Amino acid sequence: MVQQRNLSQADVEDPNMNGGYINPPPVKRQFRDPYGDWWDKQERRNFGEPVHEDNDILGMFSLEEYTHVTAGKAFFQLGCFIAAVFGLCGVVATVYPDKPSAPREFEGGLEKELGGLGAVTAS
């Protein structure tokens, strides 16, 4: 026989994890009004205001949430950058001049200077 326990509404909201502490809504401090009359202007918080239990994630010293560009636009810009770099490489490869001079040739070659016919090559 399996015993089932029904959760009451109080257990769902506060399963005695924080001792009945009133948890404010999870809003990052970054999105609060920077020009508001805050008691703590750097942390954008008033004196006596309850702190969320995830304050280390929601505070001003956590990572900034980047909301300036949507993901689709960011991938489009990344693709444009990659296309521009490869396009520039292609243009340089087609326009870049070949070797500007012919290799030096010696009359009779350098066979004697390089050790003769039986010399071991450096490769």
Structural class: mainly alpha
Gap between N and C termini: 82 Å
> Could you give a short account of the major beta sheet?
none
What Rg is obtained from the alpha carbons, in whole angstroms? 36 Å
Can you offer a commentary on this structure?
The longest helix is centred in the C-terminal third of the chain and has 25 residues, at 71-95. The mean pLDDT is 83. The protein has three helices and no strands. It has helices spanning 9-13, 55-58, 71-95. By secondary structure, the chain is an all-alpha fold.
Features:
123 residues, elongated, single chain, 3 helices, mainly alpha
Quick gist of this model?
The protein has helices spanning 9-13, 55-58, 71-95. It is an all-alpha fold.
List strands and helices in order, with pairings.
Layout: H1 9-13, H2 55-58, H3 71-95
